[in-house]
Amino acid sequence: MIIIMQTQATSDQIQSVEDEIQRIGLRPFMNPGVERKVIAVLGALDAKKADLVEHFYSFPGVDRVDLISHLWKLASREYHPEDTIVDVCGVKIGGVQVVVSAGPCSVESEEQMIEIALAVKASGAHLIRGGAFKPRTSPYAFQGLGEEGLKILAKARDESGLPVVTEVMDTHDVELVAEYADVLQIGTRNMQNYSLLKRVGQTRHPVLLKRGQGCKLRDQVMSAEYIIAEGNPNVILCERGITTFEDSTRNTTDINAVPVLKQWTHLPVMVDPSHATGDWRYVSSVSKAAVAAGADGLLVEVHNDPKRALSDGPQSLRPEQFDDLMRQLRRVAEAVDRTV
Ligand code: PEP
Ligand code: MN
Predict the structure, then answer these.
(1) Is the pTM of this model over 0.85?
(2) How distant, in Å, are the alpha carbons of 84, 302, 331, 334 from that of 340?
(3) Which of 87, 88, 128, 315 is the most exposed place for a label (fewest CB within 10 A)?
(4) Does the 2-66 domain belong in CATH 3.30.70.20?
(5) In this structure, which residue's CA is closest to atom 8 in ligand 1?
């Protein structure tokens, strides 16, 4: 349920609605910074719902009371009609500019990371990516450099001036990763790790929430709701391909996810064409499709020597291929009234 206050509602009127929500054992959550105050009512409403609508209508200053049909509230467009713009050290995700984050799957060494960071910056990337904590299917595969990898990412940020996106896998590492990262990535395998979602929700760091490989969009939005309900509104959703019966590519890109998520929520939506296809030969096509479909950003794996990459070499673009992609993306973006 959301309560939409009249534009001229006084702060006393807003306060008395909030007090009443609390008195009946529910939690008010105010959408800050917008002209018209909207109060989301959180908690188990269940059978009381219909009565409460009537009840709150009678409060002075209340314009409308809506029962939101979705299970999510704070992520919904009804609660927050304007697009959310997530600010990552001045890079705005969710505005006119399509934001491109590029870099290797894993941080492997300082030379590798800095070389790639400078190359993608020269091509026009806005953020760098690279994993220091790697979720690998096999326990014998390269697991990432851990804190050393984070330090290398910080150096690459200093050298390139580009903010860093990197994955955090464990609640115990959130503080450490947040010291170095500008965006905390939640990987596909952890999309429904609710303890981790709550923990990143307690920071104010932007969170890139990847879709679970076998999860519906509604589950992804519920996961975003966990983060926002802890007080962190800086959530970016990321489509990274899902498991389907089709096995010609590593995953199947659900392009539909872009317009659907943009309709249901106010959150920025990015697409990761690298994991979605698993094959560098398809990354450019799917990147362009994503921008044409309205994606607010891309997460692209780029490696200076894909054959020797310690993870995801087959889906990594070489820097010159990434440069070509960026040139083409500028034209696709222009066709849909965006910039890159
Ligand atoms: C990654 O971005 O390198 C990664 C592991 O992604 P995902 O969680 O989508 O597989
Ligand atoms: Mn990867």
Answers:
(1) yes
(2) 18, 17, 9, 8
(3) 87
(4) no
(5) 187
